[in-house]
C-alpha cells in the first residue's frame, strides 16, 4: 500500500498552495489525474459489483434512483488509497487544523446515480452540524469519479463562491455549474459550498466515491467505530486507523478509560489502566503552572 501511495500521489507544494487558494476563492477545485487509471478501473469494478445487490435509497434527499453504501475501507480494494491520498490529506490539514487538534475521516462512500434520477436538492454538508456558520470550515469533501462525469449523467453541480460567509446569505437564484471530469480526477469542495448531484438523463449510471475530512472534534457522518470496529481497524496502518477515529483529540476528547482509543488496537489490552492527560500545549502550561503553585503553597 505504501508503494501505491507513492505512485498515486505526491504533488508539488506549489500545486497544493494553488489548490488551497482556489478552494478559498471559489469554494471548490478540480485536480486532474490524481489516480492511475489501473487503480480507478479496479475500484470501479469493486463498487460496480457491490451495487448490483445494493437497493435504491429511500427519501428525497438521497434520491430514489440512487444507490449508496459505506464501510468502503473494507469493501473495495484500494479505497484506503483514496482516504490517505497524501496531497489531499495535506490540503485538508492545511484548511481544517487551524480549528482543531487533528482531522478525521468524515465519510468514505460509493454513490451510483441511475438513469431517471432527478437533480438533488442544493445543500451544504456543513449543515449536518448545528454550530455557527461563516467563521470557519467544518469539512472538505473529495468526489472521485469512477465513470466520466457529464452534465447529462448527473455530474456534481456546484455554486461558485457560495461558501464561507456567503453561506449565510439566501441561496443563489441562478443554477449551479455541472463539473465535468474524468476517472482519476478529484473534485474538492468545502463543506460550506452549495452543491448537489445533477439529474441523470442518460441510459447508464454514473458512479463515484466520495471521501471527506472534518474537524476532529465533530461527530462524523459515518460512525467509524461501528463501521470499523477494533478487530477490523487493528489491521489498518496506524495513520489510517487514526483518520478512522482511533485518535484522541486534545483535550481528552474521544478517550477510552482516559487514554487514546488506539490502545484498543493493541494485541493485549490491559483492563486496568491509568487515565493520562492529553492536553494542548497552552493547557499543559496552564496546568503545570497551577500544579507548581499548589505544591509551593503546601511547602
TrEMBL record:
UniProt keyword annotation of Oxidoreductase present: yes
Record key words, sorted: Dioxygenase, Oxidoreductase
Molecular-function GO terms, alphabetical: dioxygenase activity
Cofactors (names): Fe(2+)
Alphabetical list of Pfam families matching this protein: PhyH
PANTHER family: ECTOINE DIOXYGENASE (PTHR20883:SF48), PHYTANOYL-COA DIOXYGENASE DOMAIN CONTAINING 1 (PTHR20883)
Protein name per Swiss-Prot or TrEMBL: Phytanoyl-CoA dioxygenase family protein
Species, as recorded: Novosphingobium anseongense
Lineage: Bacteria, Pseudomonadati, Pseudomonadota, Alphaproteobacteria, Sphingomonadales
Amino acid at each position: 500500500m505504501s508503494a501505491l501511495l507513492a505512485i498515486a500521489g505526491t504533488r508539488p507544494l506549489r500545486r497544493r498552495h494553488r489548490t488551497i487558494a482556489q478552494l478559498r476563492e471559489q469554494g471548490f477545485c478540480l485536480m486532474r489525474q490524481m489516480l492511475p487509471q489501473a487503480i480507478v478501473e479496479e475500484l470501479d469494478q469493486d463498487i460496480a459489483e457491490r451495487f448490483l445487490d445494493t437497493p435504491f435509497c429511500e427519501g428525497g434527499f438521497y434520491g430514489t434512483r440512487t444507490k449508496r453504501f459505506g464501510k468502503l475501507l473494507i469493501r473495495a480494494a484500494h479505497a484506503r488509497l483514496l482516504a490517505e491520498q497524501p496531497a489531499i490529506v495535506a490540503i485538508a490539514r492545511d484548511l481544517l487544523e487551524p480549528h482543531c487538534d487533528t482531522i478525521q475521516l468524515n465519510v468514505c462512500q460509493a454513490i451510483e446515480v441511475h438513469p431517471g434520477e432527478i437533480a438533488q436538492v442544493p445543500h451544504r454538508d456543513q449543515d449536518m452540524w448545528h454550530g455557527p456558520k461563516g467563521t470557519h470550515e467544518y469539512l472538505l469533501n473529495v468526489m472521485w469519479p469512477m465513470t466520466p462525469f457529464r452534465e447529462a449523467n448527473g455530474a456534481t453541480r456546484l455554486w461558485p463562491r457560495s461558501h464561507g460567509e456567503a453561506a449565510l446569505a439566501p441561496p443563489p437564484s441562478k443554477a449551479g455549474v455541472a463539473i465535468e471530469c474524468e476517472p482519476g480526477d478529484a473534485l474538492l469542495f468545502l463543506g460550506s459550498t452549495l452543491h448537489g448531484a445533477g439529474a441523470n438523463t442518460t441510459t447508464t449510471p454514473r458512479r463515484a466515491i466520495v471521501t471527506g475530512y472534518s474537524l476532529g472534534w465533530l461527530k462524523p457522518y459515518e460512525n467509524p467505530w461501528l463501521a470499523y470496529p477494533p478487530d477490523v481497524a487493528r489491521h489498518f496502518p496506524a495513520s489510517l486507523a487514526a483518520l478512522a477515529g482511533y485518535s484522541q483529540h486534545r483535550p481528552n476528547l474521544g478517550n477510552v478509560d482516559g487514554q487514546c482509543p488506539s490502545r484498543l488496537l493493541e494485541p493485549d489490552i490491559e483492563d486496568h489502566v491509568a487515565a493520562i492527560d492529553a492536553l494542548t500545549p497552552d493547557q499543559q502550561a496552564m496546568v503545570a503552572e497551577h500544579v507548581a503553585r499548589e505544591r509551593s503553597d503546601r511547602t
